[in-house]
Amino acid sequence: MYRNDGFRELRRQECLRLLAKAPVGRIVHTRHALPAVLPVNFALDGDGAVLLCTSATSELVRAIDGAVVAFEADEVDAVAHSGWSVVVTGPASVVTDPAEHRRLLHDGPRSWVPSPQVVFVRIEPELVTGRELVGGLSAYGLDHLV
Question: Are 71 and 50 in contact (CB under 8 A)?
C-alpha cells in the first residue's frame, strides 16, 4: 500500500471476506515478457487460495503454471466515490492431485466457458493486500469540495 494516499488499508481477513463476495477478478501474469491481465471467474478455497477453472488446453494455464502471479478483484461505486480493491500475490499451479481435482469438480469454481477437459489452478495467497475508500471520505476528509 502507498502511505498517505487517502485509502484505508484492509487486514488480510477483511480482504478475504470481500474477495469471497466478488464474482469476477483479474489474473495478472507475464506474457512474452510483458504484463498481461485477463478477467476470470473464481472461488476461494478454505485457506484463502484463489481457485480458477479453465480448459486444459488454455494458453492461460501454460502461462501461469509454476509462475508467481497477482490476482485482483474489486467493487467500485462511481457515484458514491467508494469501493475496495484486493490483490492476492503468490505462485500459481495446476491442481494435479486426483482427489483434490475430484473435490474441486464438486465444490470448486465453474468455468463460464464450457470445456471437455477442465483443470483447476490454485494461487497460493502468500501476500494479500487491500484498500478501501468509503463514501468519498479519505484520511483527509472529503475527497473534493463542491
Answer: yes
The CA distance from 9 to 39, in Å, is 24
Position 65: which residue type?
D
Residue 138 has pLDDT above 60, yes or no: no
Q: Which of 47, 40, 6, 23 is nearest to 131 (CA)?
A: 6
Q: Give the Cα separation of 109 and 27 in Å (integer).
A: 15
User: 69 pairs with which residues across the strands?
Assistant: 90
Closest-CA residue to 126 (of 34, 7, 8, 12): 12
Tell me the C-alpha to C-alpha distance, in Å, between residue 140 and each of 2, 5, 105: 15, 9, 47
Task: Tell me the pTM.
Answer: 0.86
At 106, the pLDDT band (50, 70, 90 cuts) reads very high
Per the CB < 8 A criterion, the answer to whether 19 and 73 are in contact is yes
pLDDT band at 112 (very low <50, low <70, confident <90, very high): confident
Q: In the structure, what pLDDT confidence band is assigned to residue 135 with cuts at 50, 70 and 90?
A: low
